[in-house]
Amino acid sequence: MIKVEIQDINDNAPSFPSDQIEMDISENAAPGTRFPLTSAHDPDAGENGLRTYLLTRDDHGLFALDVKSRGDGTKFPELVIQKALDREQQNHHTLVLTALDGGEPPRSATVQINVKVIDSNDNSPVFEAPSYLVELPENAPLGTVVIDLNATDADEGPNGEVLYSFSSYVPDRVRELFSIDPKTGLIRVKGNLDYEENGMLEIDVQARDLGPNPIPAHCKVTVKLIDRNDNAPSIGFVSVRQGALSEAAPPGTVIALVRVTDRDSGKNGQLQCRVLGGGGTGGGGGLGGPGGSVPFKLEENYDNFYTVVTDRPLDRETQDEYNVTIVARDGGSPPLNSTKSFAVKILDENDNPPRFTKGLYVLQVHENNIPGEYLGSVLAQDPDLGQNGTVSYSILPSHIGDVSIYTYVSVNPTNGAIYALRSFNYEQTKAFEFKVLAKDSGAPAHLESNATVRVTVLDVNDNAPVIVLPTLQNDTAELQVPRNAGLGYLVSTVRALDSDFGESGRLTYEIVDGNDDHLFEIDPSSGEIRTLHPFWEDVTPVVELVVKVTDHGKPTLSAVAKLIIRSVSGSLPEGVPRVNGEQHHWDMSLPLIVTLSTISIILLAAMITIAVKCKRENKEIRTYNCRIAEYSHPQLGGGKGKKKKINKNDIMLVQSEVEERNAMNVMNVVSSPSLATSPMYFDYQTRLPLSSPRSEVMYLKPASNNLTVPQGHAGCHTSFTGQGTNASEPPATRMSIIQVGVF
């Protein structure tokens, strides 16, 4: 047997169970008090095991470390207090405990010790001063703050919470005159002070904490009373306006007569008065403080008489009642104040129109609604009272197209509720607007305002699809397919229309019956039916398909059609392209669009050409002059021939067979149809007052029947126009003016 002894090496460092040690130590712990600490562990043995502990970061020498050994030789540390702790100076200490082993070189481990110093009641409250002197006027009002005492205690928690009280030997009279707040130390005036009774008062105050065995602190407060003006002014109302004051009262309206007196004399009897929060002052100046909160002011009359008058326009809607407070102050030192109040109620006037909460109300209703259905409400608010603030609603006259709005909606005159008077159809009316009038019932004149209401009709799925292609008879159509039609041959395109919009108008096509042999398929979007079987010789010659068209509304609506497809002998028509046995399908929509566009362009060009031509001809007619034509016509002398004078006897007026009058009472004087074809026909149009006597219009005498007609002339054209004096006047006679005579 061989016995092997394994010698230890220092391959393990000491270790602590945790990184930190938390300790709470009272500040009144005596020096020498010991606190065991957590021991470190080192698995090595012998000299390599745990040897000792060290304590660092004890800057003030308050702590020491004592290392002791147990019976088995293990060592453990103890923390020893060297000096007295004081929480008020430092309430927390941080130490570092280091464990060392005996190896070479030694290994170590550290742990942080956090020492929290716990407070103890070792401090008494301390006043800022042992005595205080306060001067107080004898007429100080109740509740006046005499002094705010402050005592501090360095302890924390209940040990540092201070309570104030009068000392036990304070006289009862002092207790009647003053009070002290036990928590804040605030001393206030409790009774009526009188300098003549006692000009100097002493108050003994003590402060103690709430800790165990408290030691109170004391101070003395000396109150010195100062003789002051002890007669306050007296305010009396001689007369006050009875009843409410109209908000329309102009500035300067008298509402009260006030007399203010003071029994004091000299400066102490000189008075200053004002309305609290108002403007205006009597007695040589205003009181301090902000003004303008009430619309009243004081005006001084004589012998300490004042009138309270309105200072600015009133508004009951802003404030319907005022508590008018009169403040009087004498000239004493310090001055004495007196106040007296009275109420003023404001009477409402109709000075506010109703105001809608919105300028535009948007209401929604589904189509096919029930007549009488509630659509929504409008709201107008009037801050006036009573009838002045009672709002009634009505709809302003308007039309939707040619239909009165009163056939569409109605409004409750009391609450502004709007109701439908008919069932709306989204496909006909998608939205409409109207105005609602809000009017109050005030006097002497009603005030009003209006708002716009927009009603939007929401689409519902109320229209079923309608199959338009192929043409159906009794919901049935017959189609033919060549027996040799290849795979993908376009049999037909099913087209359906749906008047609804959105999802309610989106259609899906499907074959629901008759396609058990899967000979055909239909595109769910386009409705194209194509063959799925390349050999029609092996298939029954007649197939009856049931095609269903469904929209996507809620609930869905559908239409069905029966398609009787007959297999016929023959081949595909010539010119039909086939690729790999599959027929190309040409969408007819594109050629149709191209054709319609071409036709539209041609028509537009033709219309433009005609319009330009007509405009040119009208221009020639408007610029034609009969006298110029006379000389320029070749038959009248060859251009610049001899000028011939036209006598008015050569012109005659002939009554037209047709009379016309346009919207502006323009009388067109045109020739009769029999004369209009003459190349020598002149159609005169000129403005002439229709109220003129006929003798002024028809001043020309009949002409001879000898007419010389120049070739190539359409005549001179003008028109008589005029404004009739009244509607009962007979229509003006349309006349033809014909140029006659020898040219």
TrEMBL record:
Keyword match Repeat: yes
Chain ranges passing through the membrane: 588-612
Topological relation to the membrane, as annotated: Single-pass type I membrane protein
Record bears the keyword RNA-binding: no
PROSITE patterns in alphabetical order: CADHERIN_1, CADHERIN_2
Pfam family, one: Cadherin
Gene3D superfamilies recorded: Cadherins
Xref: SUPFAM superfamilies: Cadherin-like
CDD domains noted in UniProt: Cadherin_repeat
UniProt keywords, alphabetically: Calcium, Cell adhesion, Cell membrane, Glycoprotein, Membrane, Repeat, Signal, Transmembrane, Transmembrane helix
GO molecular-function terms, A-Z: calcium ion binding
Listed name of the protein: Protocadherin-17
Natural source organism: Tupaia chinensis
